[in-house]
Amino acid sequence: MSQRDLVVIGSGPGGYVGAVRAAQLGFNVTIVEKDTRLGGTCLLRGCIPTKALLHSADLLHEMRHASIHGIRATEVSVDFSAVMTRKSKVVDKSAAGVNYLMKKNKIEVVYGMGRIDGPGRVGVRAKDGSTSTIDTKNILIATGSVPRLIPGVEVDGTRIVTSDEILELTTIPESLIVLGAGAVGVEFASVFVRMGSRVTVVELLPRMLPIEDEEVSKEFEKAFRKRGITCLTQTRMGRVVPTANGVECTVQDPKGTESKLEAAMLLVAVGRAPYLEGIGAREAGVNVNERGFVPVNEYMQTNVAGIYAIGDVVPSAQLAHVASAEGIVAAEHMAGAETRPLNYRTTPSCTYSDPEVASVGLTERAAQEAGYDIAVGRFPFSASGKARILEQTEGFVKIVSEKRYDQVLGVHIIGPRATELIAEAGLMIQTECTTEEVSRLMHAHPTLSETVMEAAHGVHGSPIHI
Prior knowledge:
Elements: E1 2-9, H1 15-24, E2 29-33, H2 40-45, H3 47-64, H4 80-104, E3 108-111, E4 113-118, E5 121-125, E6 131-141, E7 145-147, E8 160-161, H5 163-166, E9 175-179, H6 183-195, E10 198-202, H7 214-226, E11 230-232, E12 236-243, E13 246-252, E14 258-263, E15 265-268, E16 272-274, E17 307-309, H8 320-334, E18 349-351, E19 357-361, H9 364-369, E20 374-380, H10 385-390, E21 396-402, E22 408-414, H11 418-430, H12 435-440, H13 450-459
Parallel strand pairs: 1-2, 1-6, 2-3, 6-17, 8-15, 9-10, 9-15, 10-11
Antiparallel strand pairs: 4-5, 5-6, 7-16, 12-13, 13-14, 18-19, 19-22, 20-21, 21-22
């Protein structure tokens, strides 16, 4: 047995960041990880490998259209094995980086299944069956999530897959049905349509990217259809039957009419479920709500003293950057250091598809429903000199503000580098910035960031370049 100040169960972007911050504050920290490597879902089976594949698809698209720039790239083809090898190398380097951070901050790493065995006690079962116990003053649950499954659809890892299995493919599927038009589903659709797959996206809700601003969703579906992706919204997935050549799916349109879809593969991308299996949270008295999440207060404390929870297991947005921020708050609070509860209105939502989508704050509809008297400004990338240079002129920047004080309520971007541009918008929300302040801030020319400034001008009806 050993005594620690903190034991973190899970080494994803919430767990390892919380561990580092706690170590910086003088804590003796142990991380318990059930996988064979550190980094969690984001690094090993999520954000990092997916974005590596997306960049390869971006590069493929650029090379195929290089003639626009006067560059002749003939016989461009895909070596999918090499694409996947590079993806794995990116993951390996990132995992090695987390290992380095643990050593630098003198954080003990224990591999095995962690379980809360009582107040201030974590048991660990290693893969060889051996067990150990760690006494600790604090416990941080950071076990993340797993792909959410749907009844009647049996994942077999070959014809019917989740985001876990599709990241380990050895060949490009000739055709792909994606169930779910959220960020995960449309990102994989973006990868494989450019790699040569015929792609169909099936979404139960009325629009693609249903959590985004309605105007953005409409533009996004238009862009997807332009790329040859079939988009079936308000469509219910029925029976799914594996076949000799792939899978056959029965779908039902909004009028109740049934039809058949066939493809080499079905990707189930209907969200993620919190992972608490086997960690002893309920047995330790930790409250778990009806949806399987752990309720916490503003400092990430559960109802049990000394036990904190962060990331995908708590009812906040299931995003890596949210988990990291929550990990820092939890570590600072348990150490008695100065901290600040998170302002979740500043949470950026990012979809790294083609085109990219990013947003922060309230949508136009949400602002209206909240009772604000709003003003909206828009600026299209087609009027941006930098976007024309990049040959990426689809989409727009949209700013939602309230009229009385001119405060920015939300920013919504679809188009090139949207996921990078959104950082400025987050600062607007954090500082309760006005659109006048944004419009009067000089933005470098020529840059894509000028579109944000122009959209701010647009709130007052005075954009310069349209």
